[in-house]
Amino acid sequence: MKINIFSIVGNKIIRYVSSCLILMLITTSCGNHNQNKESLSQSFNHSSQIINDEEPVTNAAIQVLNNKVGKIHNTETAEDAVNEFINYMATRFEESSSQEISQLGQQQSNQAILKQYINSSYMAKQELAMRTSNVSAQTKVSHFGLISAEELAKKINKYDSYANQVTEEEIGAIRDAVRRSMPNIAVDKASPLMSELEASIVTWAYGTGDDGTMAPGSITLEKPLSKVLSQSLNDHNGIKSQAIAWVAVTVITMLVVGVACGVNYTVQQMYEVDVFGNKVKDDEIIKFCWKEKRGRRTYTRWGERKETTWYYSMQDLKDAAESLEEAVYIHANKNQNGIAVLPSSLNDNYLGIAASNQSLEFPWEEKKDSLKIGDLIFLKSTRDDVISKFSYWTHVSMLYEKVGSGRVLESVPGILGTSVYELGDNWDDTIAIAVRRILNISEDKVINAVKQSKRKWQLTNYRPDKIRPELVSINGKVSYYSDWSDKYDTSAIYCSKLVWLTFKNIKNNLGDYINLDSNVTTFPDSYKRYGITLDSTKMNAPDTDDYGNTITNAYIGVSPDDIYSSKHLASDIFILGRF
Q1: Do 482 and 489 form a contact (C-beta atoms < 8 A)?
Q2: pLDDT per position as a tens digit, 173-193
Q3: Using one digit for the tens of pLDDT, what is the confidence trace for 202-217?
Q4: Does 314-576 carry CATH code 3.40.50.300?
Q5: Strands 550-555 and 407-411
Q6: Beta bridge partners of 418
Q7: In the chain, what are the domain boundaries?
Q8: Are 40 and 172 in contact (CB under 8 A)?
Q9: What is the percent of the chain where pLDDT is above 70?
Q10: 3-state secondary structure of 396
Q11: Which one of 96, 174, 333, 344 is separated from 72 by 20 to 30 angstroms, measured CA to CA?
């Protein structure tokens, strides 16, 4: 018994591809589309990454294609974009040493073979016409044959006996995920309809689970690609001549899906998502298959297994922070303008809060007239959370709107992470409040910075999703703590990192960048006394303070205390709590 995800089974695949070709010809009104149902939502929903229009496409292969599609303005650039995709597909197949010889006596490459079946010039002409035409999307449907998710789903379910039943919503989700990864692919971003090129890319990704990272030669063939395709086409008289008139990407992609019975399981292992594109949770039942040879016949056998996956949790993060709590040192004397004087050790009695420790409410009605958008609100809470292990101020947020009872832009643990919240909704157990304002900058510039930050970082997770072993050591937890802390890692954003990111590329009226990380928080170089032995993971890195002095062991993140102590902040507008 042997699992071989991309092994080809001769006669069965011939029959399968033939069936796919018939489906393709029946769907000529919708160009080139379809697929077995199980992979793409995983790969593209996870591609993380899923990229917003405001940010660059990070995957190299996707970036090249996305850029070429975005530059289509004439026949040459349109053909270049289409050929980029065809060449990418071709190189994913293994080049056969026994490949068919052309009439000129030369061995044909996979690129040349695919171009015999894919009318790239026609596809390029259609793509160019749609991108340069000033007609509506509805007109493009009748003139250019754009296809909807509903129509594609119906065609797949009606004519492809090998495909699982796919819904319009699933096709639409896949299309949207591809568009987020490749912002330039849609001919009309406001329309849900797909061009032939877009549908081809969706089809390839849907069928193979490839997000642009599949290695060249990953798909191995027992027969040369040319023979597999030509035999399939010749089994149905007349299909080949008709297929050339339409996009044949569906045929080739379904070939891969037909032979890769275990692609679902493989994609899950690669992308850590299930067949619906959701993060793998504990105890998921995963179906998989393998090929068995019995004499001259090959059989596909199916089985299932329970897949349990563990992720680092908030408790893991807290455990790590707690283990290093005694190592934190705060350079309190660097705080120039703050009323609240921070002690240098977390063991010191902080803030001298009245004995009752009664939770404070933000005095919005009393103070709102004195506040401005972008003012920084610092809080001290009695909650035993992560930030309390390395900072006295345990939270910082930015005033976003002065409507109702006020709204703030902040990052908090929970489903939404970074978002705009009602002021005070996340501020339980508050025992001290301070409000400070950035110096030497216009009000309009601050408002713009906060609005831009909201657009760029909204819904970013508070902490990163990272798989861990079932049993994880304290070293592993501290490594996760280091990943979470790193202020330059934007895969997850905590409260003070959000504030720092909001202003770090903004210049004030003096021409200085507003770097709010004063680096008053430091960690030692060694943690052995705390039972931590790490070779590469560090909680500190060389940096400079507000005045250009080198801090050799500055915290690699940015704490609320670092923000509070910044020279770029004016004195407290008001402060509550006894200091």
Answers
A1: no
A2: 778 888 988 999 998 888 899
A3: 877 766 667 777 778 7
A4: no
A5: unpaired
A6: 411
A7: 10-271, 314-576
A8: no
A9: 62
A10: strand
A11: 174
